[in-house]
Design brief:
Blueprint lengths: L1 H34 L7 H13 L4 H15 L4 H24 L3 H14 L3 H14 L4 H12 L11 E2 L2 E2 L2 H23 L7 H13 L6 H13 L5 H16 L3 H14 L3 H19 L16
Antiparallel strand pairs: 1-2
Helix pairs in contact: 1-2, 2-3, 3-4, 4-5, 5-6, 6-7, 7-8, 8-9, 9-10, 10-11, 11-12, 11-13, 12-13
Length: 309
């Protein structure tokens, strides 16, 4: 009997030691991923995540992070071209879902399922799952921010909750969904300020809010400028920094601040020769010339151009 107790205590000690050993490595993986919104070079983070799994093969979070890196890499391709990649990732998601269920991480399971469904543009399923995650853990800024992003992206998907024209969600219902998403993202900021999380930053929320407001049928460009500007002030140069500077150029041009639009595009190009940034620079230059001639309103100088996420 005593031997069994000692064996059990030793097992608990080993498990606790393993957990203590992997958490710092998980933190080192998460820091650049969260800061850079999972875009750009993720090799170092992936190395830490694999090291975690070497010590703890069933670590659900580490497995999810590796999968999510892959999901982000295919997220912006059209559904038909990414179907093969998603099919290859399906067994990995199934394994993660099974582990989450076995370890009673139910809220996380709903969250992961929602994010996975979002890659398929399955809006109804994604919203159903993320609602359950938020209901289970209403104080989770991570889950609330995820719901905000899903709602804000509803215009990209075909869903029963929104009006649809030629596969695009349009009209007041679409704006209503986006506004709900904006509300979730703002609430997530409040929660994050009260309880910081390693899975989310205020800078990320600025980026997501700017993106959400840009998606409205009548974007509030002053808000977009504010969010992207704050993001850029607090973020070191990176791929996502370039994306934000590029989109800021669009927002400035829409506000009629054509010189600032050119400066923002130049800022993006300084770090990366992004095609859309170079196009936005030319549009900003055209906008400046039109303003000098006084023959066109700045907002009508050119159509909006947004780089890929």
């Amino acid at each position: 009997m005593k031997l069994k107790i000692l064996t059990a205590l030793f097992s608990l000690f080993v498990a606790a030691s393993a957990a203590a050993d992997v958490e710092p490595m998980l933190d080192k993986a998460l820091e650049p991923l969260v800061r850079n919104l999972y875009v750009g070079d993720t090799s170092a983070a992936e190395g830490y995540l694999r090291a975690v799994l070497e010590r703890e093969p069933d670590h659900v979070e580490a497995q999810w992070q590796l999968l999510y890196i892959r999901l982000v890499s295919v997220k912006n391709a059209n559904l038909s071209s990414r179907s093969e990649a998603l099919a290859k990732l399906a067994p990995t998601f199934t394994r993660i879902a099974k582990l989450a269920k076995q370890t009673n991480q139910i809220a996380f399971l709903h969250f992961a399922t929602a994010m996975y469904a979002s890659v398929y543009h399955a809006y109804d399923r994604a919203l159903l799952e993320i609602d359950q995650a938020v209901a289970a853990e209403p104080k989770s800024a991570r889950y609330l921010a995820a719901r905000g992003r899903i709602r804000a992206a509803s215009d990209e998907w075909t869903c029963s909750a929104c009006a649809s024209t030629a596969g695009k969600n349009t009209g007041p219902k679409r704006d209503q969904e986006i506004e709900k998403g904006i509300g979730d993202l703002k609430k997530a900021r409040e929660l994050l300020q009260a309880n910081p999380s390693k899975f989310l930053t205020e800078e990320a929320l600025d980026f997501y809010l700017a993106d959400a407001v840009s998606g409205l049928s009548r974007p509030r460009w002053d808000e977009v400028v504010g969010y992207y500007s704050r993001f850029l002030e607090r973020t070191p140069p990176s791929t996502v920094y370039v994306y934000a500077a590029d989109r800021l150029s669009v927002a400035y041009r829409r506000m009629g601040q054509c010189i600032k639009a050119k400066e923002s595009a130049d800022n993006a190009i300084k770090y990366m020769k992004l095609d859309s940034a170079q196009l936005n620079r030319r549009m900003a230059e055209f906008c400046i010339e039109m303003q000098k001639m006084g023959i066109v309103a700045a907002d009508a100088a050119a159509p909006q151009v947004i780089s890929a996420k």
